[in-house]
Write a structure and sequence with these properties.
311 residues; 9-stranded mixed β-sheet
Length: 311
């Protein structure tokens, strides 16, 4: 009998599909809740092309939104995009049990609070994914590079659930970093996401190489990163300049990559504008910090959304 914990992935797109595969490889029972990819995954499983090899797998159970699980999972991993009109409290409700540990693998700042308040009796792990992965087509995931997770208990600390889950991910073949200060790590992740994701949309879905190699592109990325650093420091989470240089160098080393926001935009899907960029600008305003580059990009995105009817 498999005595490893049961996993349910809520939102098994590119991120959920990949990390579900890692946990499946580690020997866990992995089920998924899907919307648009339900029929494809039900028929053929999740297909994953990866430099790590063929990670394709068939989930133990494939559910639609609105179904009811056979039993509550040990770990409920939430990978849905944080968008206006998406009620994560309602999405989670049918799948969570009294002892279920909530796990968020999602982008953005201050994304944990509403779920922590709604389910105070359930432990909550917040995770940051450092990965280049995208949904190539229905039920197909393209993994280009990386895959490391950084995780910690929200709002701080590392509990037994973190230890168990991190060991499972490592058994499946990826690196995991445990942190006592996961909110600070979210600021560090924003150092890359907040500039690259929104700029890719303004530039009609530009990949990372185009953004950096265009004349003035790297300088703009650096200016936006430094504004993120100013806001993070005001919040009590200073970021060392060395991380900025590491992010630039690492992005140049990886293959040209269209990030998740670029892919969403190109496929006429809503983008996580507020979670990734708007929240940073709002916090800057609370501290009275000028972030002219970030604010210009945010306002430009709003103009574009209004023009295209995406608001």
């Amino acid at each position: 009998m498999n005595n490893k914990p049961s996993i349910l992935i809520l939102g098994a797109g590119a991120i959920g599909g990949f990390y579900g595969a890692i946990l499946k490889k580690a020997g866990c029972r992995v089920s998924t809740v899907l919307r648009s990819d339900y029929e494809a995954v039900k028929a053929q499983g999740v297909r994953i092309n990866s430099p790590l090899g063929d990670l394709s797998y068939r989930p133990d159970q494939v559910y639609r939104e609105g179904d009811l699980p056979d039993e509550a999972p040990d770990f409920l991993i939430v990978c849905v995009k944080i968008l206006p009109g998406v009620d994560r409290i309602q999405l989670v409700a049918p799948w969570i049990g009294e002892k279920t540990c909530l796990v968020l693998i999602e982008n953005g700042l201050d994304i944990e609070r509403e779920l922590a308040d709604a389910y105070p009796g359930n432990p909550l792990i917040s995770c940051l994914a450092f990965i280049a992965v995208s949904r190539a087509e229905t039920g197909v995931v393209e993994h280009k590079a990386y895959g490391k997770l950084v995780m910690g208990q929200y709002p701080k600390g590392v509990d037994d659930n973190c230890q168990v889950l991190s060991q499972l991910f490592q058994a499946g073949g990826i690196n995991v970093g445990l942190t006592e200060q996961v909110v600070g790590e979210r600021w560090r992740k924003c150092l890359w996401n907040t500039p690259f994701n929104p700029l890719s949309v303004i530039a009609n879905g530009a990949d990372t190489r185009t953004i950096l190699d265009t004349t003035g592109g790297e300088e703009l990325i650096r200016a936006m990163m430094r504004e993120v650093m100013d806001v993070a420091a005001a919040e009590g989470y200073p970021i060392d300049e060395a991380l900025l240089e590491k992010n630039i160098a690492g992005t140049r080393k990886m293959p040209a990559y269209k990030n998740s926001m670029a892919m969403d935009y190109l496929n006429d899907r809503p983008i996580e504008r507020e979670a990734v960029l708007g929240n940073v600008v709002a916090i800057a305003q609370q501290h009275g910090i000028a972030v002219p580059h970030l604010n210009t990009v945010l306002v430009t995105l709003k103009m574009r959304a209004a023009l295209e009817g995406r608001e």
